[in-house]
Write a structure and sequence with these properties.
The longest helix is centred in the N-terminal third of the chain and has 29 residues. The protein has a single domain, classed as Serine Threonine Protein Phosphatase 5, Tetratricopeptide repeat (Alpha Horseshoe). It contains eight helices and no strands. 57% of the residues are buried. The structure holds adenosine-5'-diphosphate and magnesium ion (MG).
């Protein structure tokens, strides 16, 4: 895509909401093993609220407004820890593209990386602590590396998706050190972190939206 407009971003939120809704039960089941079984519900509520809010915006709204509207509605809709984490991600994405009427591929990659950084700053999780950070940070790095090496946005987000999948898979071998699963300690071993699993769903939908 040569130019990513606000309409493209609204379509992206529609895609994410649909993808998360389709995976809601699986995400709740994963959270049922090491958490409180609400992750699919939280993510579905958050992204359907974000989608509803951004589709109701004036079509002339700029990309920053789309992201910040998504952030606020996500935060209001979600009581679980994923609420402030994704709200911060979208606020940061919006701040990264402030003043732009439309995004270039480079802007989108920067916004994507800002999302991961925002989640890390908000949750203070490091790699290896069995959280969504274990999917988001490798994904952001992979996108940045592929783009810097001359890849286009589609290739960069494909690399991000591959890295997110590997990262989510790797959480099975990690002992939870953040969030609700922390209290399980060693008993969290062998199970995928639900937030890392949902990150893969979000990133896959973002890749699809940005390469259409
Ligand atoms: P809650 O734990 O409040 O029920 P959710 O079920 O919506 O919230 O989300 C759980 C997911 O949130 C975890 O699987 C993990 O990936 C993520 N998470 C929890 N705490 C943190 C944190 N401090 N930093 C990053 N991610 C976190
Ligand atoms: Mg939960």
């Amino acid at each position: 895509m040569t130019e990513i407009t606000s309409a493209c971003l609204v379509a992206m939120f529609e895609k994410i909401a649909k993808a998360i809704e389709a995976e809601k039960d699986r995400l709740c089941a994963l959270d049922g093993v090491i958490g409180d079984a609400d992750h699919g519900i939280a993510m579905a509520l958050g992204f359907s609220a974000a989608r509803d809010a951004v589709t109701a915006l004036d079509p002339a709204a700029d990309p920053t407004t789309v992201f910040s509207t998504a952030a606020k509605s996500f935060l209001n809709a979600v009581g679980a820890s994923s609420g402030p984490l994704y709200a911060t991600a979208f606020m940061r994405a919006g701040a990264t593209v402030k003043g732009k009427r439309a995004l270039t591929d480079a802007d989108f990659v920067a916004a994507f990386q800002a999302m991961a950084k925002g989640i890390q700053d908000r949750g203070k999780a490091e790699r290896g602590e069995k959280t969504m950070i274990d999917a988001w940070l490798p994904a952001a790095d992979a996108a940045g590396e592929r783009f810097a090496a001359g890849g286009d946005l589609g290739a960069s987000l494909a690399a991000a998706l591959e890295a997110a999948r590997a990262g989510a898979d790797a959480t099975k071998k990690m002992v939870a050190a953040k969030g609700r699963a922390e209290r399980l300690g060693e008993r969290s071993l062998g199970h995928m972190d639900p937030g890392a699993a949902s990150a893969v769903v979000v990133i896959e939908a973002m890749r699809e939206a940005a390469t259409n």
